[in-house]
Design brief:
Elements: E1 2-6, E2 9-13, H1 20-35, H2 43-65
Antiparallel strand pairs: 1-2
Length: about 70
């Protein structure tokens, strides 16, 4: 594995035989970090929003699972 910083980018090179599932989880985390870098939301606010979204999703989709 090599890591380089070029200008204002970081380049990570990984061997081709690495577990792609783990790499995808890392990429998802980095996308999340990039998307939330300027967020002023607290963890409590994020948790509350997540709970509300999950409840709404379940109400709209539970019939698909409880036939």
């Amino acid at each position: 594995m090599t890591i380089q910083r070029i200008d204002n980018e970081i380049i990570i090179r990984l061997p081709g035989n690495i577990n792609t599932e783990g790499v995808q989880r890392l990429i998802d985390f980095l996308i999340y970090k990039e998307a939330t870098v300027d967020s002023k939301a607290t963890q409590d606010q994020v948790d509350e929003l997540s709970s509300t979204i999950n409840k709404n999703w379940w109400e709209q989709n539970k019939v698909r699972f409880l036939k």
